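Re: the request from the purification team.
They wanted to know what the chain is likely to look like in 3D before they choose a buffer screen. I agreed to run a prediction and write the result into the notebook, where they can find it.
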Amino acid sequence: MKRNASVNTATSLPDQDLVRQIVFHEAGHAAAIHLNNKQKQLPAVAFEITMSNPMQALVPIGQSAPDHWVAMVEGGCLINSLPIAVIESAHYYADEGPDAYRTAFEADIVNLLVGPLAEAKHIALRDNAAFGDAMLEVGSLSQYGGNSDIERVYRYLGDFIAEPGLHEAKLAELFKRALEFVNTPVHWLATEHLAAYILNSTKSTITCEEAISVLDAGVLLFGA
């Protein structure tokens, strides 16, 4: 899961703002992979967060950040990573009966959409702007590094829903779920907690276990 544009110092936004946008985008993906899948009683799936130019994400004010600083979540998709027998072993039951594979497909799409939505929420909070479904739609996610995520979502829809006329309705349903995830206070606190951890990290890779530990600590902070 990768934001569709890396930081380029030729852009008009301050370098550190762009770095933070990327970090919240990827922290959103990671938070959804762990917390959304867990909520749906789906099996854990491995992922990691990789960064180019670690230790240079946030540079002193007045200095330029490195060109094309990139962070991305690698892995994390249930459909591509786990055999159907493992997915079905999660014992998830939808309203109409057991259908773990469909649930995994929908969870993967939600987790893809949460990344750009997390970036959008971070920007809204930073700029003291409103955030919600009245201001956002799937097409607007391209403004928040979401092009590659949306392309992948449409590939999923094409692979799993034979009737093209049903794609947009399903996408609207899953977009609403992704927005609800981002707007759930405990999920957002966990996302912020992981984003701060990434920004302060000097590593080129944050492991799955490390990211999960940070997210779980954020959840505990919400209940403190």
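For the purification team: Residues 100-126 form the longest helix (27 residues).
Please add any questions underneath this entry.
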